[in-house]
Amino acid sequence: RYLDLSWNELAEIPEGSFLETPSLTQVQLARNYLSRVGHLKSTSISILDMSSCEISIIGKDSLEGFPSLVDINLSRNLISHIPDSISSNTLKYLNLNYNRISSVSNYTFFMLPRLSILSVIGNRFTNIWNRSFFEFNPYLERLDLSDNMWRCDCTDDNMLDFYEFVTLEPNKKEESFNLICNSPINVIGQTWLESCYYKWNPIERTANIDNLVWFIIVMIVGLSLCIILINTIRKSMNRRLAAIQAERERQVAEARDRLRQLRIRAEQEALCNTPDPRDLIAPPSYDE
């Protein structure tokens, strides 16, 4: 049921190599030197791994020889083009991560009616896809689109349409933070939503501008009131300090006046208590 031929140096696998193994369901061919998917045939294989094989060509009918194929891994190859109308009535999981693919069209996946998970991480896509590419894939559940070179043109209605197609519930297929702009230069590194938010939500932008204007007005009024309050407090404090200073000066003046009066009183008392100089002269003696 399981055959592992990975890490060999296989350059070609004959077309009918797996026809005589009706019980074989999984084949690992990773890390070989296969240049193309070819026209292999098997009625039983459901899982095929051909990653890291230096594959550069996928034939239009490369999957038609696998009537039971459910999962194919073609990641880390040199594929630059997916032929239109590649066909499989059973394929559900298609892994094309880390190739060199730069474009797809309405006809790329429409012959894969059972496709449910498509991974194209790390390719060279620049133009935003269109939801019509998956018009004939009703079972599509997951799109892995990260690490591509998306050009974000927010004026393109298709960009918003496809963004909603892949990110909105209930049919969400990709996380919005995985959709990163690679150009133009002013939005490099931003998510699609970050770069186009105000373009897609102009009313909210107007509301935000109005809110900003009101915020500035409130800040100016608040700052003016604060300045007035501070000046009022400062003047009140100055008046209070002036009153305290005047009171202190009045008290000092009163103290000086009292001291002066006490000094005058003391001088007057001293004059009153000073004896008559004549009393200080003794009367003449008998001899005198």
From TrEMBL:
PROSITE patterns attached to this UniProt entry: LRR
Transmembrane segments: 212-230
Coiled-coil segments on the chain, per record: 234-265
A cellular-component GO term for this protein: extracellular matrix
Name of protein: Hyp18
Pfam families: LRR_8
Keyword set includes Membrane: yes
Signal sequence interval, chain numbering: none
Alphabetized UniProt keyword annotations: Coiled coil, Leucine-rich repeat, Membrane, Repeat, Signal, Transmembrane, Transmembrane helix
SMART domains per UniProt: LRR_TYP
Species whose genome carries this gene: Neptis nemetes
